Predict the structure of endopeptidase La.
Amino acid sequence: MSQSLKLPLSALKLHVDMADIDISLKSSESASLLIGQARAQSALEFGVAMPRFGYNIFVMGEPGLGRLSLVFEQLKLAAQILSTPASLVYIDHFNFSREPKALLLPAGTGHTFSKDIEKLIDDVLATFPAVFDSPTYQQKKTAIERHFTQAYNTAIGMVDYKAQEMGIALFMENDVMTFAPMGSNKPLTDEEFSLLPQAEKDVFHADVVGLEDYLNEVLLELPQWRREMAERIKQVDSDTVSSAIEPLFAELRDKYQEQADVIMYLAEMKQHLVDVTIADILMPSKTIDADAFRRNKQLLIEQYLPNVLVDHKLDTGAPVIYEPHPTYQNLFGRIEYASEQGALVTSYRKICAGSLHKANGGYLVLDAEKLLNYPYVWDGLKRALQAGCIEIDAPYTEWGINTITLKPEVVTLNLKVVLVGSRDIYYLLEELDSEFNEMFKVLADFDPYIPVTHSNIQQLATRIQSYAQEHTGKQLTSNAVQRLIEHSCRLAESQQQFSAHINDTLEIIGEADLFSQRSHATVIEQTHIEQALQAREYRNGRISQEILKEMLDGTILIDTTGEAVGKINGLTVLEIGGSCYGSPARITTTVSPGSRGIVDIEREAELGQSIHSKGVMILSGYLGHFYAQQFPLAISASIAIEQSYSEIDGDSASLAELCCLISALTRTPIKQSFALTGSINQYGEVQAVGGINEKIEGFFRLCQARGLDGSHAVIIPVANKRNLMLKQEVIDAVKQELFAIYAVSYVNQALELLTGQIAGEVDQEGYYPEDSINFRAISRLKEISEMANEEDKAE
């Protein structure tokens, strides 16, 4: 029977047939970025083509599966046939400067429009204040001032004439009028005036009062004259500015005549220049030196130059944007601030675009995990997609931290979002967010494994050769390509599939190239691939080597020869960082009369996790089903994985634990040259487990170090035959009959291999043969049950 369970050499590893595989450079020119993801590709094609609301895409799968490569490949194909979206600029809203206006321009014209406005600003600075020095302007202004002066002088002349009739002189100094008495046709001094009789003084004072009243009467309309003069000068200034500025705007109006929003902005800008800017900073009274010119230009730029947020080149199709750092500001845009004299100030010129602006009209790709890590971003993205607009705001106002001083005009949003994330994130969002399925109706599910078919092997070989040519400038031999494909199958733990983490396989090429260079080879051969794999294993193998060393020196007790009752070699897998390696572990069992049941020491010590504890509990179900049909099951047993000081999970030790328990129960010795792994159910069927290659190789290394003698073997589940991708050294040992691998389907098969005795099958009457292990197990359990009944009666 044991020979029928032993696996042949052909079952230990998949040997890829390269006979019909083309690995030439010609075939590598058509290398595909993705292999064997037809389901995901179909979902992406559907999601990209579906224009309806809510058909955003969630790309599900683990990193390294080529998710982004396929996403960008599909999106760029779709983007090429779409029209290029409009350019987006923000301009000042002159009447409400805290609410900048959004201006949409034809694709590719955003920066052109900005340069046109900048040239207009230069022309304005070149025109003003020089235009006020023109003879025409000066004549008009002088005429207005002369008219006012004449009216003023006429009124003063009337007062002066009347004063002379009264013998009083009129003096003016700095628009201040004073009166003085006359004597001998000349004004009297203060001393002379003081010598006059009091009566004459009184007459003079009375006359002065009358003259002042008269002066006020004739100058009553002086403020009105001044206002009229100021208004007329202002009108002349306005007319002069309008006349001078009109040619500057005429060309722009002609250029943008089909864009109503631009024409409206030009009209508002012209009016603002005429009414405010030129009068404030570009009038003749202002001193214009080099520094002042630069300051004035900067002021005009800050007030009029459009802020170009997005300006896609014409005929480039729709944008495809990937945002690697999706903070709120990076996604929705932000408003920057400058410090001026201790105060924070801002303007429409400090509005910065977010990824939503850049991707608007196209596609936005985001990492789901990063997206969920930043506050407010997920809710903000849903809100933007539902509302169909982009609003630049500060998300922290709910905390009372209000730093925003602008409220830019919202922009219509029309894009498709592609979220890339793991399965855990997808199912978490689906469970916790009721709106998630409404917004992301398309799931592109990436398979972590690719079927081993001729077509897929050809594509992988082509991809390997293409990568090697691009990154090393060398070709791989057929054997080297074959070795890499087999390594990919090992990563997938399958003879029927290879790993979809293609990059994990391609990385070996760069490492193998180093060994190729050292040997001065012009191609990368299989030996170089082997050297790269061995070097990687050596770099990451310190801990496994230490454990092996402790087994060899007896620190960790593992027997590989002889027989023992209640002791068995189980197989475990340890994962530390990026390293994964197998190691044997001793499992021991003790049995005594009593009814405590099977005690899992790992669980009692809080080291055994739930799945491991489940595997131990199944043992009671097995014993009850096969051995305790005619009497109550009463047993006290303890099971432990010896010298284990960390948490243990998984049920892959349940087959070994059951065999060890039966050994202790029946006092049947177990061969210590065997190790086994496998999960069982209550009916004794052996089930598949993970890490099968590492487990076998872990026990093999220990036996090899102590010396292989042909008695060493590993027992695995039949269901794991498809997962075997063993190293060549193990295969060679099996070929030389120094090591063996057995595959079992039932517990009885494992018992017979471990003990060399008959496990026994029930006959038609439900009894096992008397010389079988199962018969001894029933007898022992019945004896313990009767002892328990006698104790109960005695009490």
